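Why does residue order matter? Because the sequence determines the fold. Keep that principle in mind as you read this record.
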Amino acid sequence: MISDGAKAETGAEFRPATRRQEFLAFIVLAILIWPIIAVGVVGGYGFLIWMLQLVFGPPGPPR
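Structure:
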């Protein structure tokens, strides 16, 4: 068991997140991170389709 003196020295004290910290984390995720991930996923999928069409040809019935 860790004594109170050791907690203060190591900084192992647990503090729950405040409402403001949770709100700021939500804003960062909702406005910055998730849109970047969404653009990356859609762009990556489009690039994959483009490369597959370069290799295998466009979709459609054979000539």
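DSSP finds two helices and no strands in the chain.
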